[in-house]
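To fix ideas, we reproduce below one chain and its tokenised fold.
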Amino acid sequence: MRHLGRLGHSLAAGAVTGAALAPVQLLLWADVRLPLDKALLALAAWASWGAAWVGLLYFLILELSALVPANLLGRNGFSMPLWRRMMAATSLLVAVLAVWNRHGTRDLLVSANRQALSVVAWVAGLYGLVLLVLVLRRTSQRLSPVLSIGASGLFVGVLWGIWVLTPPPPPPLPGNDAPTFKAARNLLFVSWEGADLPWLLPILERGDMPFLQSRRERGAWGQLRTVRPYARSAALATLVTGCAPSVHGVLGKRSYRLSWLLDRPETLLLAGPWRDPLQVPWRAWERVPGASPKRAPIWAILDRSGVPAGNAGWPRWSTGGWDLQAPLASEATRFEELNPDLRTALTPALAAVPEAARDAQRAFAIASDLHAAVLQRTESGSMGALVTNTRLVSMLRPTWTPETPGDSSDETLRQAARLLDSQIHQLWLHLGGEGTLLVVASPYGMAAPSPWRRLGHLVGHTSEWRVSPSESPDGFVLFSGPGVRAGERLRARRLADVVPTILYLLELPVARDMAGGVILEAVSDEHTARVPLRRVASYPPSVPTGNQHAAQPSPR
């Protein structure tokens, strides 16, 4: 009977844990508002999930550690000391998970829901501390079991009340589908994933990127604060929409459909000591591709203003202009068929790390194929704006960043820099040269692992030293062309500031729901004196107008 009593306590405590975690999960879906029947369904689903998994874990811990002596269970089948210990563990677990998820959604969740997670953490933490005090003072016999169980129910009810009282995000502003202003000049907007100033500045000083160096001397440049925590899809969408992730809605690479509970797929899942999305009850989910932005990217804004625009190398966010997708590694041109000069320069460089040479060859082939397809597409018709993205730097730096300066493996990255500099120069000339607004930006950089992450590598699978974007290092931005202040070093700005600044330099309206603002330090005094800052409510996505989408680029 002692074991059955422990099992009953464990299952009940697990059910309370699941019921308490359900509103924490719902707080991560800021735009979800459930009717009463769906809320009760969510309560039942998470409570049963908690009873099965957390409850059995409690029972296993009790049995293995013999934590609870037999006399604590009492003769009536219910042990208040044991229940209080388990509820204290449950409440502290909820508090830790609330803090964990609040910290892990710094730029991804609306402020009201992040504040609600803080309130959940405080409520759960205080409840757990009160229970620990009662356990330590041995006041079990002074309070009735009904009061103890009722307090647990009240705790769950308060957490659900926090979710109910959290205000929903504001409704989207009415959009402006047809801007009345036309872009004043052409635009070349280039994104280099994985590049940052600590990597780029030494390369510029060595003369490996002469074109970019000349543009930097005539433009404004500086550090760009990325989205935290690192989420590639969210960073890319923020860069091209100018909106916060909570507004454009792209929060991760994958979304999950819970058709039994939600009308549309959701992305953010409760982070904890489990693999996503195992905390969704009973695997009642279906993995689907990530969401498209709820706001128009820069090429769609330009396309609707009458400027022939296209994009290349981005995820499938083709809501305007034409688009080119980067070829798959299996479809890319063989390294032996690439430009002979590039092959000649790369062959001795790749010999420094022969085991990674094949992956590097594919990365160079993908970048070369995409660039060739873009050039072919721009030569086939008029082009007023081009927005490209390449992953070459982010694919090479984790393996080819040397641990010590001057290492021979650094030559591969120098060749990548030279290739990118040549490509951007060619595109700039195709779009008109000096009369074109050039913007080069990186949505995120790369950095060495933190001491804690290195310790985890040493304890875990590997102690290999590699740079990565996991620490959310900042990227960079460079503006050059008409209307840009020359020779200006910008103080650190946000990723969302890039698109509003581009729109202002192109003399187009800036949307009010964009999280970023115009970087006035990058704008010349003549431009600010001549061009007023125009505003529209929003730039919602829409079906492409006019131009047809291009197919995937074929290997050269």
Remarks:
- The two ends are 75 Å apart (CA to CA).
- Residues 331 and 531 are 46 Å apart (CA to CA).
- The domain at 187-249+293-536 is CATH 3.40.720.10 (Alkaline Phosphatase, subunit A).
